[in-house]
Amino acid sequence: MEFFSAYILVALCVLLFTVVYALYAVYAERKVSAFIQDRYGPMETGKYGLFQTIADITKLLQKENITPTAADKILFVAAPLIIFVSVFMGFAAMPFAPDIIGSAANIGVFYIIAVLAVEVVGILMAGWASGNKYALLGSMRSVAQIVSYEIPAGVAIVSVLMISQTLNLQEINLQQGILSAGTVEFLGFWDVSETGGLLAWNIFRAPHLLLAFLIYFIASLAECNRAPFDIPEAESELVAGFHVEYGGIRFGLIFLAEYAMMLLVSMLAAILFLGGWNTPLPNIGGLELANWTTGNIWGVFWLILKSFGLVLAQMWIRWTLPRLRVDQLMSFCWKVLIPAAFLCLFISGLWRLLVMN
C-alpha cells in the first residue's frame, strides 16, 4: 500500500509541475510573440504581467461546460480526458535524473510512442462527437497530419536506438555521460567515457544523428499541431479546429495537453540526442566539472534546461514562419522528411557495423 501511495505522490508531483509549466509557458509564448512583433505583451496583471495567465485560467475554469445538442454526449465528455491522459502517461517512463525515474522500463521508448498514439483517438473523437463540420474537418486533418509525421519521427528515433542498442531511456542517458559502464567514442575513434560533456552526446558520437535530431524536431512540431504545421487549428478556415465546441475545463484540458505534449517531445529529444540529464561540461585538466554537476538535482536541472530550450525554439518558430498549406505539409513529410529519415537509419546501420564494432 505504501509502495502504491508513493507512485500516486510522484504522479501528483509531475501533474502539478505540468500545470505550473503550462501556465507560464503560455505567458512565455505571449512574451516571445510580443518581442518578435515589437510590443510588450501582458503587463497589467502582476509585475510584468506574471499573473495574467493565472487570471485567464481562473476565468476559464469558472465558465459553464456546454454540450451541443447534436453532440454525442459521452464521447464529447471523454475526448478531452483521453487527449490529456495519453500525453500525461508519457511522463511515466521519463528519467529525470540518475535516481529519479517513474518506470525504468526496458521498452521505455516504445511505451512513449505507443501511448502518444492514443492522443490521435481522442482528437478524432473530439471532432466527430462535437456534431460540427468544422470540428470534424479539423480532427481529420489532425489525424492525417499526426499519423503521417509519426513515421519520420519514429524512424529518426530508431536511428538513435540502433546506435545505443537499447530501448531503455535511462541506459541511453548513461551512454552519453561519464557514468557509462562501457566505452563512449566521439566520432568512433576518441574515448570520451571519462571526459563526458558535449562530446559524449549522441549528435556528436555519430554526426548523422544531428540530421535525425532535426527530422525528429520538425516532425514533433507537426505532432504538437504547432506552426507552421497548425493546419488542424487554422482559425481562418476552421474557426478553432477540432476543439471549436469546447469551453471551460474541457477546453482547459485540451490546452494543457498541447503544452504538456510540447514538453514531453522536447524531453524525449533531449534524452535521445542531447545527453538527457548529463551536463554539457567536460572533465578538463583535472577540474572534473562533469563530476561536480552530475547528481539528481543537477540532473533534473540540465534535463529541464534543455527541454525548456527546445520548447522556446517551438515558440520562436510559431511566431516566425507562416502556416503551410495541406498539400505542402503532406508533400514535405512524404517527399523530404521520410526519405531523409530512412537515410539516417541506413547510415546508423553502417555506423554500427563499420565504426562502433
Automatic annotation (TrEMBL):
Domain of life of the organism encoding this protein: Bacteria
Reactions this protein catalyses: a quinone + NADH + 5 H(+)(in) = a quinol + NAD(+) + 4 H(+)(out)
GO annotation, biological process: aerobic respiration
One Pfam family of this chain: NADHdh
Gene Ontology molecular-function annotations: NADH dehydrogenase activity; oxidoreductase activity, acting on NAD(P)H, quinone or similar compound as acceptor; quinone binding
Listed EC numbers: 7.1.1.-
Database matches in PROSITE patterns: COMPLEX1_ND1_1, COMPLEX1_ND1_2
Chief localization: membrane
Keywords for this protein: Cell membrane, Membrane, NAD, Quinone, Translocase, Transmembrane, Transmembrane helix, Ubiquinone
Keyword Ribosomal protein attributed: no
Membrane topology: Multi-pass membrane protein
Keyword Nucleotide-binding: no
Record field: transmembrane: 6-27, 74-97, 109-131, 143-164, 199-219, 253-277, 297-317, 329-351
GO-annotated cellular components: plasma membrane
Assembly description: NDH-1 is composed of 14 different subunits. Subunits NuoA, H, J, K, L, M, N constitute the membrane sector of the complex.
Family: Belongs to the complex I subunit 1 family.
Function field: NDH-1 shuttles electrons from NADH, via FMN and iron-sulfur (Fe-S) centers, to quinones in the respiratory chain. The immediate electron acceptor for the enzyme in this species is believed to be ubiquinone. Couples the redox reaction to proton translocation (for every two electrons transferred, four hydrogen ions are translocated across the cytoplasmic membrane), and thus conserves the redox energy in a proton gradient. This subunit may bind ubiquinone.
HAMAP family: NDH1_NuoH
Protein name, UniProt field: NADH-quinone oxidoreductase subunit H
